[in-house]
Every structure is written in C-alpha cells, then in structure tokens.
Amino acid sequence: MFFEGTLPMNPHTEARLEKVKRMSRSARRVCFLLMVLAGLAALAVTAGTLTVPEQLTCDIAGVRQACSELPPEAVTLAVISAVGGFALVLVGLHRLSRLFGNYSRGEIFTRGSVREMRLLGYVTVAYAIFQVAMFVVALTLSANATGEWPRELRFGFSFGPFVIAFFILLFSWVMDVGAELREENELTV
C-alpha cells in the first residue's frame, strides 16, 4: 500500500485517504453495473440484427439503410462493429474497475495502478483505431457491392479518444515516476 511502512499520517490525511477508498469502492461498483448493461446491450443488438434485419436500419459508412436491403456481409459487418465496440468498452470498464480496486485498497502511487492506467490508455487507442478500421471496411464493402463510392458519406473522425488516451498515458507516466520515488524513499528510510 502507498502509505504503509511510511511515516504516520495526520488525522486529516488519513480521513482523506479513507474518503478516496470509499469513493473508489463505489466507482468500482458503478463500473461493474456499466459492464453488465453494456454486455446486455451487445447481446440485444446482436440478437436484434441477426433475427429481424428487415425491421432494422443499419448504418454502413455513414449511410442508413434497411438491413434487409443490404448483402449479408454488410449485416455481418454491422454486427461485428457493434459487438467489437461493446467489447472494447467492456475491456476499458474492466481496466477502470481494476484501477478503482487498487485505489480502494489504498494503492495509489503503485506499479499496479500505473499498469492499469496505461492499459486503459491502450484500450482507448484501440477503440479509436477500431472505429477507423470499421469505417474503411464498410466503405470498401459498400463500394464493392455497388461498384461506386457512396454519395452520402458522413464520417467525422474524432480525435477525442486519441486525446483522452494521450492524457491517460501522460498521467500514467507521472504516476510511474511517483511510484518510483515512493519506492526509493522506502528503501532509504
């Protein structure tokens, strides 16, 4: 733990650490709830797309069409895109849950917390790359099916996930330096 083996804490600092632990336990529960909801949503989308495609609309390369008018490959791509996106969200929530688990045990500036933070940043980058890859595959599939590129092409590339990942990775580097300093301090005390 971060504070075990170090100098005794004053009561104010100890109260703040207990508050962080409580809030982290609550945040971890919220992550688990969101994981369950995202899993159920992925199952519903998959089941709905595969069982009643004639009533659904699919968004392929930014163009909405009835799923029944699309070739089976396009519907499969829509399912892969939805399930893959949900899977990456689930992995991100799992990493976040583990990070809050570390914090709830008082492991704030530790190697384990840094690792979870870094993995969360990598998942965020993977999500952004997955979105771009699905767009390119959908666009290529659409062009191959019709023989021409779609006229109504709506894709707004978002730098948001990359910016978030950059700050998460930067913060994990700062935490890593803090963990290193803490370890060096414990060795000299």
Summarize the structure.
With 189 residues, the chain is mainly α. It has 4 helices and 2 strands. A two-stranded antiparallel ribbon has the order 1-2.
How would you describe this structure to a colleague?
The protein has 189 residues and is mostly helical. The chain has one domain. It has helices at residues 11-51, 72-104, 111-146, 160-188, and strands at 57-60, 63-66. Strands 1-2 form a two-stranded antiparallel ribbon. It is elongated, with a radius of gyration of 22 Å.
What characteristic shape results from the CA principal axes?
Answer: elongated
Q: Uncertain runs with pLDDT below 50, 5 residues or more?
A: 1-5
Strand content: under 5%
Instruction: Encode the helix/strand succession as letters.
Output: HEEHHH
Number of helices: 4
Number of strands: 2
Provide the spatial order of strands within the biggest beta sheet: 1-2
